[in-house]
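agent: user wants the full assembly modeled, not chains individually. Plan: 1) parse entity lines 2) check alphabet per entity 3) run joint structure prediction 4) return tokens. Steps 1-2 passed, two entities, 229 residues total. Proceeding.
--- entities ---
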Amino acid sequence: GAVVSQHPSWVICKSGTSVKIECRSLDFQATTMFWYRQFPKQSLMLMATSNEGSKATYEQGVEKDKFLINHASLTLSTLTVTSAHPEDSSFYICSAAPGRNTGELFFGEGSRLTVL
Amino acid sequence: QQQVKQSPQSLIVQKGGISIINCAYENTAFDYFPWYQQFPGKGPALLIAIRPDVSEKKEGRFTISFNKSAKQFSLHIMDSQPGDSATYFCAATDGTSGSRLTFGEGTQLTVNP
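--- prediction returned ---
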């Protein structure tokens, strides 16, 4: 299957700082990437849809000023958690679609964020 | 109408047994049904997927059974192994949503040796 790389795999930061997570599609171009958040023993919660060259579409209840998404190229999307607080601690996972409307979606390894 | 209901929440199976996880959906526009396997601390990995033009798809020990009229689909893991112990998510999407998936709640599978 297609490879999606996510970095960093884990990060610990102090409250009030910002953290950037990168998501790269290594062997395909991804017009669309998705960002999810996952709490322990729960399903994936879609945060936003990232489209190359345009603004991200955020799900209801997700603060766009808190979670900044940039999809600058067909192989890279970034999620920046701004002014992080302990309640932002979670497992963040990105995914990328190699084809438009095919349904196929490949996930990164996830990034564990811990805010102290 | 966008929900995908998954059951059971957890499942314990003996090595060599059959694991069965069920999902039901409501949106008749869904036309792609993947299953993902997730190990702790890792992202989900695509396991197997089916489209509604077939009733069954088999890949190795993994089989998806699809019932379009009942709007249900299930994952069968034959000869379950301890290495299959993971969380399994069913999902669904339609052709207009750009691969945006609706996920089930997940099933934590434990295969005892």
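agent: reporting back. The CA atoms of residues 64 and 111 of chain A lie 19 Å apart. Chain A touches chain B through 28 residues (CB under 8 Å).
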